[in-house]
Amino acid sequence: MSPFDVLVDYERRSLAHVAGLPEQLDAPGLWRGVGYRVGSRRLASEFGEVREILSVPQITPVPGTQPWMLGVANVRGGLLPIVDLKQFLEGERTVLNESMRVLLVRQPGGDVAVLVDELFGQRSFVEEQQLSEDDTAPLAQGRYAHFVDRAYHLGGHVWGVFSLDRLARTPEFRQAAN
Fold this sequence. Notes:
This protein is 21% helix and 38% strand. The chain has helices at residues 3-16, 22-25, 85-90, 133-136, 164-169, 171-174; strands at 30-38, 41-46, 50-55, 69-75, 78-84, 101-105, 112-116, 118-126, 148-154, 157-162. By secondary structure, the chain is α+β, with helices and mostly antiparallel strands. A five-stranded mixed sheet has the order 8-1-2-10-9. Strands 3-6-7-5-4 form a five-stranded mixed sheet. It starts with a helix and ends with a helix.
C-alpha cells in the first residue's frame, strides 16, 4: 500500500467516526457562535465577530476616559483598548478574576478587547430552540436591547445572541474619552 493509499484509508476511517458530518454542521436553521457570560446573562456572538480570545492582559489605566474603559494593554507589541462590557451595558464595574477572558473585536480604526466574566466556548442552536420575542424581552432590557435581537433555550439556560459588530459601531462605545 502506497503512503497516499494509507492516508486515504485514515481519512475514510476518521470521517466514519465524526460526530457531525459537514452537511450536518451546516444544516439549515443551525446557528453557531462563541458563548460567554456578562454579569448574569449568557450571551453568544457570531464567530466572525470575535477575532481572538485572550486571557486578561496587564492593563494600564488611561486618565480622562469613561469609567467602562479599563485602559490599554500591550498585546504582541500593539496597544489594545480594554473595555469592561458589563460596566458599559449595566453601569456596574466587573471584579477581575482569573477565569475572565477578553474577546478581540474588529472595529473601524483598530481592534478593541471586551472583558467577559466567563467563556463557554462554541455554542450551537437550532430554530426549535429559538424563543419568541416576548420570551427574549427579559434578556434584552436596558442597553442590551440594542444588541440582542433573539435568544435561544439550551441546557436549561437562555442565551441571547449579542451583536459585537453593532456594539463596535455604536457612537457612545467608540467615544471612550470623558
